[in-house]
Amino acid sequence: MTIIEDAVPAPRGAGEDQTPLLEVRNLHVEFHTREGVAKAVNGVNYTVRPGETLAVLGESGSGKSVTAQAIMGILDMPPARIPQGEILFRGQDMLKMSGEERRKLRGAEIAMIFQDALSSLNPVLTVGYQLGEMFRVHRGMSRKQAKAKAIELMDRVKIPAAAARVNDYPHQFSGGMRQRIMIAMALALEPDLIIADEPTTALDVTVQAQVMDLLAELKNEFNMGLILITHDLGVVADVADKIAVMYAGRIVETAPVRELYKSPAHPYTRGLLDSIPRLDQKGQELYAIKGLPPNLLRIPDGCAFNPRCPKAQDVCRTDTPKLAQLTGDEGRELVGRGSACHFWKETLNG
Amino acid sequence: MGRFVVRRVLQAIPVLIGVTFLIYCLVFLLPGDPIRALMGEKQDPHLALVLRARYHLDDPLVLQYWHYISGVFRGDLGTTYTGRSISDIVAQRFPITLKLALTAFGFEAVIGILAGILSALKRGKFLDNVVFIATLFLISIPVFVLGNVLQLELGVKFKLTPVAGIEDGWPASYVLPGLVLAATSMAYIARLTRTSMIESVRSDYVRTAIAKGLPRRRVIGVHALRNSLIPVVTFLGMDLGSLMGGAIITERVFNLPGIGGQLAQSVSLREGPVVVGLVTLLILIYLVANLVVDVLYAVLDPRIRYE
Question: d(Cα A314, Cα A61) in Å, to the nearest integer?
Fold first, then answer.
């Protein structure tokens, strides 16, 4: 068993040999609150290459969104603090950049799509203004040019009658259309990396598929890296290349998307997969992982998942397992697979 | 929007009639006889009868009111018991009150909103505490105390402003009274702006604006500010009305011959038509200010639409 420092390389997808677009190294984020220090992210490592989609999976409070906000540089500091770690964007540590340097990256090189488009768009400004603002601020365009660009973008994300709707306000659009506008805003300056934080959670199932398809299509067109944050295993399957599962601020399993579904190597991942409702089990009680996610002020010793884990042993309560490279038959490395479980072998084999 | 405005103007008519009637009744119910008060020591029963007849003082309340209101609709506000036209009084005194109220309004809007924004942006820091204590001070201190102290310090000791009166015209004579009149509302505006600003700075759309890489100035000035001003504008609009009517003490302290002083004097002389006339005017201002607020509301927040 070897300990791997960085996230496992991508098994397939574009640009495998290129240097990573984004590399998160040993990132820690904590929040200083009145009750104490909440450790939201505790040593996360992952990489995203150009054209690659990384899905980050986890329950609320697992640190997936906080990691994304740290990458974006939109954490409120204080109360948040980044005591250690590096976030390398094209090899440069963004945490060492000045505020102004980071601002210029935001929106232009790294863009973010938020969950609830209605509250994430400004209610008192037209969508055309909010889209055009990207061009006016980052590209120095005039109002008129920016508006033309806004219409072009709305066309691109397939909003019908874009030219007629450019002066409408966010509340005049449907949920799906609003999320398209969020996507258009993120794509405006053709960034290299997009972080989508639960982009479809607030939408109807049929609209979810449309929005995900659109996102995937545009991502391929521009060969962008995509970090897709979600708790919805269904969304991930079609779009992602690889998955990182987070629990209590740590990555507990990484795997190419198909292999994770086929043979999870962490009891938590297994629990997540088992809790998807299935038609062939209609009438039976739904599976749920027992217990609640840990309080981030008091993360349990050892493996953070141990109080909820059906396989927990004494060692799980004392030793924190590291993300280990998985090996298959005859000690062959399983490419791209890692698990932070003392008993990953047993879990992997059912 | 046009229809909305027309409907609101029509709605104002019954409000106006109802309120004037109410005020008329209240003045009618005041104890004492205006004619006797007018004659003082030399009572003349014959003259008293003539005057009582001229001012319909022995008619029933409803008839008296009818005489009054039908005059108002003909554009005649009536006369005082000394024979002065009430329209003249209004024309002479109203501009002074208006100037005072608008000066105060300017102070409370500009200083209040700026203090609120700064306080919100520096939350928990030194400046925030300074604003907090200053607003607490302004809210707690009575107007006449603040007025007299400022008069003494700035007017008498340092001779920076006129002490009282309106000889120096606008702005010199109105700066100090304007500040005093604005004091309490200014403090409320500052606090309201602060709360509302903090709320919108925390909102999702401001987070989006930051994620778009907009400069901080733009995030605050364009994205946070417009949303947080919606409740502030409401308060300001409502307050314009009370600044006009509530200037009685300030006008007294600074000896400004405005509506407030006249109103106080007329109440003590039981001059019903004057009181009703002035109050009607103030109510009109209230109604107009309210309408302006409602229209502004829709301009600031496109989610609000009036049919």
Answer: 26
